[in-house]
Automatic annotation (TrEMBL):
The organism's place on the tree of life at top rank: Eukaryota
Record InterPro entries: AKAP7-like_phosphoesterase (IPR019510), ASCC1 (IPR009210), Cyclic_Pdiesterase (IPR009097)
GO CC annotations on file: nucleus
Parts forming coiled coils: none
Ranges of residues in domain A-kinase anchor protein 7-like phosphoesterase: 3-191
Listed name of the protein: A-kinase anchor protein 7-like phosphoesterase domain-containing protein
Organism lineage: Eukaryota, Fungi, Dikarya, Ascomycota, Pezizomycotina
GO BP annotations, alphabetical order: DNA alkylation repair; regulation of DNA-templated transcription
Length: 214
């Protein structure tokens, strides 16, 4: 079945928003002013879309969304009792992709004082065991998409060689506490539509559930 929703951790928080906004604006200015780079500004993802995807799911009916939100609630015991602080670094492409013919460029999340990858794997396993995630689907590869050539008017490939070189060690955000993990609908937000299905703060100490928007 076609995926309709995805489980994600938003990277735009109260603390990260100003810095990430400035970084994305600077990136747009850079790619549109550099003589040796031909990447449209529209390839840069909107601030509100910067997130880490843990998995995708098909939830065609409201009852399916309710089942998924119950599974989401069940992960509360897995969550740490202290904030998880994430840095977002560099730019890269998926393994095996020619930088001269790239579609997606992403930044890497790093966490120095907590095994964040292991937590995300445990959360994925909960959703897989509940039958919400397909175990035959893609494996976990945490990344935050920064540029996506598919979202441009041309929808073509880009030569990312130069920008990857210049942004190899770039810091997009540093040691920012994560706030939420949640289920989102796929696709751009339509006028008057709430894109979030259900969200929980990522630290169980501050658990406050939002109402489902389905």
């Amino acid at each position: 079945m076609k995926p309709t929703h995805f489980l994600c951790i938003p990277l735009v928080t109260r603390l990260s928003r100003p810095g990430l906004s400035a970084e994305l604006s600077a990136l747009k200015s850079y790619i549109t002013s550099a003589d040796n780079i031909s990447i449209p500004a529209s390839a840069v993802r909107p601030l509100s879309t910067i997130h880490l995807t843990l998995g995708v799911m098909s939830l065609p009916e409201p009852k399916n969304v309710e089942e998924a939100t119950q599974v989401l609630q069940s992960i509360i015991p897995l969550l740490p009792q202290r904030p998880i602080k994430i840095s977002l670094l560099g730019l890269g492409t998926f393994p095996g992709i020619d930088p001269g013919r790239a579609e997606i460029l992403f930044a890497h999340p790093t966490c120095l004082d907590y095994d964040f990858d292991a937590l995300c794997q445990r959360i994925r396993h909960v959703f897989e065991d509940a039958g919400i995630f397909d175990k035959r689907g893609f494996s976990l590869f945490l990344h935050a998409t920064i540029l996506n050539a598919r979202k441009t008017a041309d929808g073509g490939l880009i030569d990312a060689t130069e920008i990857l070189r210049n942004y190899r060690g770039h810091v997009w955000m540093e040691n920012v506490p994560l706030e939420e993990i949640g289920i989102c609908r796929m696709g751009a937000k339509k006028k008057g539509e709430q894109p979030l299905a259900f969200f929980y703060p990522i630290s169980s100490r501050y658990l406050v559930a939002a109402s489902p928007q389905v």
